[in-house]
Specification:
The structure holds 2 protein chains of 2 kinds. By secondary structure, chain A is mainly alpha-helical. Chain A is about 75% helix and about 0% strand. Chain A has one domain (about 20-200): Up-down Bundle (Four Helix Bundle (Hemerythrin (Met), subunit A)), CATH 1.20.120. Chain A has helices at about 20-50, 60-75, 75-90, 90-120, 125-155, 165-199, and one strand at about 5. In chain A, helix 5 (about 125-155) runs antiparallel to helix 6 (about 165-200). Chain B is an all-alpha fold. In chain B, helix 4 packs across helix 8 and helix 5 (about 120-140) packs parallel to helix 18 (about 585-600). The termini of chain B are close together. The chains are: A mainly alpha, B mainly alpha. Strand 1 (about 5) of chain A pairs parallel with strand 2 of chain B, so a sheet runs across the interface.
Chain lengths: ~200, ~625
């Protein structure tokens, strides 16, 4: 047997591009991002066919969506720190950071409940209402899924399983996904609230 | 925590025995549902897809029996509508895409010299979701609720106004199941190929089959969301009164066609590109020389992958789109023939310069080249708007896409079955029966589908359940029906061949075809851990160039572990543990499937379903104290 490589000294877990779950998360971002782009394409497609836009509805109230955008952007510094603390494997900071990130996730979900009525159209009013609710629903699903994952991860990190390199990798990937949730909102926000005003 | 046991601490024979114990799964009912072995899941996927092929094929035979003579009333129009919808939906969503994608689930880890896939539990989950989705469609059909609006489920026919009962909802939700499964496999494939190639397998040494799977996986990631978005919109239109496709309320029917074909055309390449990978894998050992034009073949895969996203409108030439747009899509539809042509020329050059061995796998490759080129030529014809306008919705188009899909994908698949069967099951298929299988398939297929070109040019439309004798289509339809039954007989022969092989004791050697790629290094069938020591490669055909493969050491022998390598050069970066068997992927798939099924009847199912789905996902991910969870 000819031995050419020995990997016994290599680490047994990793972060970022070394980690399988990081790449998996990136893959899911790509496919979900693809879904967002297509849903946004459907919005623009229906807009180009309509005589006026918004179709038979008042302009959407811009404030709840703006507040959601501000809240999501405000969560980014802590999210950035979460990545750093996870890499440093600092359990105490990670635990309380996750509590903070859970709150940063729940708060925009509460405002989002008001946002659905602030768009001033129902999903079954017309095609415009349908596609607005579709985009809003798609993004809400993403916030909800990430918040649920963050809550479970928070609980996990407070147990004996927390002090484990692989769990810190999970925290790092969770923070990575949150960037996606925040950044996808910005073009959707512009599309839902500012494009109709410019149309 | 006890000190880890490394393979360097043990003799090779003991490493092998320990790894076999670590990677083995219980041979119990629990073990059957909990398996995360990529080989077992890959085999299940392929066998399940072949069962769906049988069902879709039987639907086709009933249709051919119906059309064999004029004014026939074997089945009525309603059943006929369900039959062609079930046939198309089954063949595309439940057979062709899954079988091609998941052949890679079995083969990719072996070909790149690793022990498993990146996410084994996600892999198991994807299989169960696929199985439940397919079962739901066929159970619905047997209780007279089979979808009946065509495999593309066009609105308004499938919409709330015309699509009665739950038929179209069943179709739309089947899409959710199969696409969820397909997307999970695609992400798994990408990460496996990116990060788990054995040391030395830099990107210029990746087997062409693996390249084909990788490019296909990327296409799936960017195209499949289109049909998930559109089918969700369709369900919403039907269930909660949205108006995405309702023209009267600001929606648009063509939005459906755009979204569907933005997925639907690349889908053809989800099927065709892996088939080209099979062809490349077969040609090398049977021509007994390395592939001519490796780089060209890889670039052709990329070119096809990109161009495939710019073709969808050629399915919509008769919908009254602007002429400039039509011209663009004509040009791109013709352009996609260029990379396909490059591939064909590389294969011919390899065969030309090789020392050919005319075994069954190679015969199917020749059949592929002949039939696929014929389908490709009619493809260039229908890329032209005037010709397409003339033959649209006629049997000419049916002939074209069967030549492309059956010729371009099923023939290579059959060759692949004969080629890899020894690896999957440790037994050789009978060569004599294989040759009969090939010629019967070749004659049957061409007799079934060639007359359809002429029938189409004579004006016979698609999707009619019968026709009057005065049309003069009876003779060619009868020939086509005879051909279809001969083609079916070739599959029966394959089934007999497989059953006979399985009844023999396993005895196939590790590398019966004297091939050069890594899947032929371990025994046939491979042990649960695939490779006792992760190989190190220095060429594209490592088994030819270095009969005794150099290896990597330093992995744990007491838990499931694999080597993670860099993206381009495949240099070792770290070692990653791999999860043991778990029942949770099955339970999660079951709960999600019930939730999705419930949502056909009430949107509240999604809300109530969140609770059990959440519980099962927590059960899935919560640490259980296994050695593999340690860092």
């Amino acid at each position: 047997m000819k031995v050419e490589r020995d990997v016994s000294a290599l680490p047994r877990h990793g972060f970022g591009t070394h980690s399988l779950t990081w790449w998996g998360t990136l893959g899911f971002m790509a496919l979900e991002g693809s879904g967002f782009v297509l849903a946004a394409g459907a919005y623009l497609y229906l807009m180009t066919l309509a005589q006026k836009w918004p179709l038979n509805a008042p302009q959407p109230d811009v404030w709840p969506g703006t507040v959601v955008a501000i809240m999501l952007l405000a969560s980014l510094p802590l999210n950035m720190l979460m990545s750093r603390w996870a890499k440093q494997e600092d359990l105490v900071k990670v635990r309380w950071g996750l509590v903070g990130m859970s709150l940063f996730g729940i708060a925009p979900l509460i405002v989002r409940c008001f946002e659905f009525s602030a768009v001033n159209v129902r999903w079954d009013d017309n095609g415009y209402g349908s596609v607005v609710w579709f985009l809003l629903g798609l993004h809400t699903t993403h916030i909800f899924a990430d918040v649920a994952e963050t809550l479970v991860l928070t609980a996990l990190m407070f147990t004996r399983h927390g002090q484990n390199g692989r769990r810190f990798g999970d925290v790092h990937d969770n923070a990575f996904y949150w960037y996606f949730v925040v950044l996808t909102w910005l073009p959707i926000y512009a599309l839902l609230y500012w494009v109709p005003r410019a149309a | 925590m006890s000190a880890p046991l490394l393979d360097t601490d043990l003799a090779p024979a003991e490493v092998s025995a320990r790894l076999e114990a670590v990677w083995s799964e219980p041979k119990t009912l629990w073990g059957w549902f909990a398996t995360v072995d990529h080989k077992k899941i890959g085999r299940r996927y392929v066998v399940t897809a072949l069962i769906f092929l049988l069902l879709g094929g039987l639907a086709a035979l009933v249709m051919r029996a119906q059309l064999g003579t004029p004014d026939n009333h074997l089945v009525g129009p309603d059943v006929y509508n369900q039959l062609f919808t079930m046939h198309g939906s089954t063949m595309m969503f439940l057979f062709a895409v899954p079988v091609m994608e998941t052949l890679g689930v079995y083969l990719v880890p072996l070909m790149i010299g690793t022990r498993t896939v990146a996410f084994p539990r996600l892999n198991a989950f994807s299989y169960w979701v696929y199985l439940f989705g397919g079962a739901m469609l066929w159970i619905a059909f047997f209780v007279n609720s089979g979808p009946d609006a065509g495999w593309f489920s066009y609105v308004p026919l499938a919409g709330p106004q015309y699509g009665i009962g739950k038929r179209s909802d069943i179709w739309a939700q089947m899409i959710t199941y199969t696409e969820l499964s397909g997307l999970a496999v695609a992400v798994n494939t990408i990460v496996t190929v990116f990060k788990m190639r054995c040391p030395g397998m830099s990107i210029d040494r990746i087997p062409l089959f693996v390249w084909a799977q990788l490019v296909t996986a990327f296409m799936i990631v960017f195209a499949m969301p289109a049909v998930m978005v559109s089918s969700t919109m369709l369900i919403c239109d039907r269930l909660v009164g949205t108006h995405f496709f309702n023209w009267a309320e600001g929606g648009d029917v063509l939005l459906w066609q755009h979204l569907f074909w933005f997925f639907g055309h690349p889908e053809v390449y989800f099927i065709f590109l892996p088939a080209t990978g099979i062809v490349s894998a077969i040609i090398v050992p049977f021509a007994r020389r390395k592939m001519f034009g490796y780089s060209v073949l890889v670039l052709a895969l990329f070119a096809t992958g990109f161009l495939a996203f710019g073709l969808w409108v050629h399915h919509m030439f008769v919908t009254g789109l602007p002429r400039l747009g039509e011209s663009f899509f004509t040009a791109s539809s013709m352009a996609v023939a260029v990379p396909s042509g490059m591939q064909i020329f590389c294969w011919i050059a390899t065969l030309w310069d090789g020392r050919l061995r005319f075994a069954t796998p190679l015969l199917f490759v020749f059949g592929f080249i002949f039939n696929f080129v014929a389908g490709g030529l009619t493809g260039v014809m229908v890329a032209s708007v005037p010709i397409d306008t003339q033959v649209h919705d006629t049997y000419f188009v049916v002939a074209h896409f069967h030549y492309v899909l059956v010729g371009g994908a099923v023939f290579p698949l059959l060759g692949g079955i004969y080629y890899w069967f020894p690896k999957f099951y440790g037994r050789m298929l009978d060569e004599r029966m294989g040759k009969w299988n090939f010629w019967l398939a070749m004659v049957g297929f061409n007799l079934a589908f060639f007359p359809m070109h002429i029938l189409g040019l004579m004006g016979m439309p698609r999707r009619i359940y019968t026709y009057p004798a005065e049309m003069g289509w009876g003779g060619m339809n009868l020939a086509s029906t005879i051909g279809a039954f001969l083609f079916a007989a070739s599959f029966a022969l394959l089934a007999v061949n497989i059953v006979r092989a399985l009844r023999r004791a396993p005895g196939a050697p590790a590398n019966p075809w004297d091939a050069g790629s890594l899947e032929w290094a371990p025994a046939s069938p491979p042990p649960p851990h695939n490779f006792t020591f992760t190989p190190v490669v220095a060429s594209r055909e490592p088994l030819w160039d270095t009969p005794e493969l150099p290896v990597t050491t330093g992995l744990h022998a007491d838990r499931r572990e694999t080597v993670i390598t860099s993206l381009v050069e495949a240099e070792p970066q770290m070692c990653e543990s791999s999860p043991p068997p778990s029942i949770w992927p099955f339970v999660a798939a079951l709960v999600i499937s019930v939730t999705l099924l419930g949502s056909i009847f009430t949107p509240w199912a999604l809300v109530w379903g969140l609770v059990p789905v959440g519980i099962t996902l927590i059960g899935w991910f919560w640490p259980k104290g296994a050695k593999e969870e340690e860092s």
